[in-house]
Amino acid sequence: MAPVVVRDLAVGDFDAWKPLWDGYNAFYGRGGETALPEAITHSTWARFFDADEPVHALVAERDGQMLGLAHYLFHRSTTSVGNSCYLQDLFTVEAARGLGVGRALIEAVYERAQQAGSPRVYWQTHETNVTAMRLYDKVADKSGFVVYRKLL
């Protein structure tokens, strides 16, 4: 079996990336009638290629087939001089789960964050995402923080 290759998303990748993006959103209940508006998808896509945006994207492939994505961004923090790296979206197609794709994407985000001088990478997941948490428990530490939010 060929190795997993993680690389930066390219402008010509939209047609291969979009099903992964849709799958990620559907996993979190944003599909069908609750799907994100296409304007958000296209805005997100454009941000990946805008040098003034802090948003970045990686994809994982094997034998030329796109198997996963990771979207991350850098932001200021009041507790460090360097920007923090937030791993916002991580998704692997179901057929590739358990094959090291998620780990490869996380490790690639770690590398990008180190190169950017970021002192930490962090992310959140839903409490029911137990499959992913088995991986996360191996590659990171739980912070103990609980997330609160208010939609406006």
Explain what you see.
By secondary structure, the chain is of the alpha+beta class. The chain has one domain (5-139): 3-Layer(aba) Sandwich (Aminopeptidase), CATH 3.40.630. The protein is built from 4 helices and 5 strands. It has a 5-stranded mixed β-sheet with strand order 1-2-3-4-5, sandwiched between helices. Helix 3 (101-115) packs across helix 4 (130-139).
Topology:
Elements: E1 5-8, H1 14-27, H2 38-48, E2 55-62, E3 65-75, E4 84-92, H3 101-115, E5 121-122, H4 130-139
Parallel strand pairs: 4-5
Antiparallel strand pairs: 1-2, 2-3, 3-4
Give a brief rundown of this model.
With 152 residues, this protein is α+β, with helices and mostly antiparallel strands. The protein is 33% helix and 22% strand.
Helix content: 25-40%
Biggest sheet features = 5 strands, mixed
Shape: globular
SS-based class = alpha+beta
**Unreliable spans:** none
The ordered string of helix (H) and strand (E) elements is EHHEEEHEH
Query: CATH first level: which class?
Result: Alpha Beta
Give the distance, in angstroms, between the N- and C-terminal Cα atoms: 47 Å
Count of distinct strands: 5
